[in-house]
Amino acid sequence: MNKKLFSILLLMVILLTIAVGGCGKTEQPSQPGEEPQTQDETTDDETQGEEPQEQTEEQPKEVTIITWDKPGDTALPWQVDLYNEKMKLFREKYPWITVEDISIPPGTDYRQKYDQALLAGEEPTVTAMFPYVDIPTRAKDGSIGDITEFVENWDLRKEGKVFTGFDDAIQIDGRWYAVPYMPYQQHIVINKKLIKDAGLDPENIPTTWEEFGEFCAQITDTSKNRFGFGLMGMEWCAWPYTNFVWNAGGEMGVQNPDGTWKLTFAEQPGVDAAMFWHDLVWKYKCTQKNVLESYDDLFADFVQGRTAMQWGGISGYINDYVNKYGGDINDLDLMTTPAKEGCESYNLAGGETYTISPNATPEQREAAWLYIQFMGYDLEILELTAKVSAENGSPIFRPFGRIDFQPLDYAEGIPEAWKQKLTDLSATAKPEPWMPHWNDVKNALVKPLQTIILTEDMTPEKAKELLEQCAEDLYAKYPDTFKKE
Asked: Residue 342 is part of a domain; what is its CATH number?
């Protein structure tokens, strides 16, 4: 799917999501995947002279599935209560399904943990962990199950009520391996209070790199532990780096005519993006002290009022900033990701999917599909989730996989300006690449990117060498996927 079509689909979803008020309730259809009711089929001749027999339902076979969805120790009480209520409702509706739900500690490398669990036969039966960009590689290596039988017979999808923006990534060679969980779009999140404290205007933040860097430098005051920009330099750094490469006019890779991929992140736009990050650290001196800090620490820097801006999604910051640390939601804002002078600004879009274990038995697969339909597509559950989240100061901005439901219909107190900004940003959405071995590309880029941003006397020429060597290593390691021409 090309960028323009993806943007149109995401725009349609976000427009539905932010259309607060004025929308009538959608009548809930019968739930796809419900167990069939079977009755004895006998002819009139067969039953003549016999006593009438009471018709009975076939009892489903008891089955156990494993999930990793249980909230961990850092979850807020209302989040735990919401999860417990949804599980209670699920167990009431499907009493023959036993769910062994497990908590995964924050910061866990979930991909590695899943792969280790898969080898040990302890993986979750159903999960919503994997982003759509993982699906082509996992479908190829067999670490997720083929769910074509469910998707092709899915009434909700036939009715046009399921988000289709991931379809090119989650359908491989005509077979389905995942269904959407929640799409998202990244941008720059802003703490206007910190910017005002620095004597600057948060309504006039520059959107070109050099001016943005200078602006962030003016915000920074190390004596007050205040920094202009929180840089994601840890092991996830290639994720936002991709967005900055686009905003320098480049691509991470382009597909060759034979279906393989040419890696292009070492071309000039990729070098420019890496050197802009380097300059944020050394020229503008506007980043947090430890640019390799964990994601949790980077997140804490923003919600606790130490960094004025970060690359992320605003909905993920509201709950902690407002409810945990007592901030005012009106302090927060959002803007497009800055671009190199003369280049277009894009904002990376992606999202997670539901997948089923390749080792699940037929009964577990059926139960897992019911779980997906209940947790991800049942209108009552979606309404409960949106309502409780909004009531606890954490409205859901991200659309669900079911596009005829608008979570922001339940939100109150959201700044009006955000609605138009979200609409405008959706037109700049660009889907994260989903080439095979995309995660291997991102992992390979961690060391060279970190070397570039940590080396004070780094030059563009040396940065290019590091990126080119990374590309060469990937060509050698995955010759069936990556080719120079």
From this structure: 3.40.190.10
